[in-house]
Amino acid sequence: MARFRTRLALLGSAAALTAGALAPAQLVGAQPAAAASYDWVALGDSYTAGVIPAAGDVFEIPRDGCERTDQSYPQVIDRDLGGLIELTNVSCGAATIEDVTFRAQQPIGRHLPPISEDPDYPFPPAPPQSEAVKPGTDVITVGVGGNTLGFADILLKCLELGQGSGGVGTPCKDELAAGIPGKLTKVSRDYDQMLAVLHDRAPHAKILAVGYPSVIPEDTSKCRYNDPHQFLSITQGDLDWLRQDVLEPLNKAIEKSTGTQDVASFVNLYDSTQNHSVCDAGKWVEGILDQDYRPALVHPNTKGHRNAADHVTSAILNAIAPN
Length: 323
Description:
Blueprint: H1 2-27, E1 38-44, H2 46-49, H3 73-81, E2 85-89, H4 97-101, E3 139-143, H5 146-149, H6 151-162, H7 171-176, H8 180-201, E4 206-210, H9 236-258, E5 264-267, H10 302-320
Helix pairs in contact: 1-10, 3-10, 8-9
């Protein structure tokens, strides 16, 4: 039902925008245009790019190592909105906020030894993602911050420390908790700088900061210890810590930074993904391995990207709607 309402709103907004674009031209006798066209640049990390097989097929040929998939939410929205939006998608797996803002990135593809070896690795450097933003860009979406926080490294350390624990205790929290506030401070500082750079490159663009979905349930008793389709060897206590003191504060830091720019707004994916975590039956995020035993390392699947597409579509249409 939510998708149906979103599509109705999409069609209605597209029709209104098209009508608004045509009226002035018709008054002066010009040929009516087919539709309004808006330039959208999608920036971000693996939660935007897709990356895992459960988020679709990689469509870049030749591969550039960023692993954008055809069911990731930018590509879903691009198909949904048709000619209304012109998409430039430069999101890239493993990107940090600095990679979006000013630093060339070394893409890793699916080279995650000892889990997997990518035959095409190494890949050429990818330019800073912000270079895709031009003065005429109308909408910028950006979903980034998890790699600046170091979430993948934290996750792997929690897996290591949880081995042999029987699912009891908080070995990861005990070792890593003291360093999290400093990492969150860096996220906030880097995010503020990134938003300022994006606004400077496209002064008239609306910036949509896309938050992260819920990946750990509030009730971590749903999570089975040593289940590779969930969080494998991470203890329930450490999962509670990761949710409360790492992931939820990450979203709050991003939302707070978004408030530093009048042209920016926050797209909340967390609330809509409750009850669709890694440990829920109707999961929108895969665990360490997906159901086909392929590496997933806690990333959204096609259902998660479909949900993100619905929410980001609504935000884009609001951003480009006439005042």
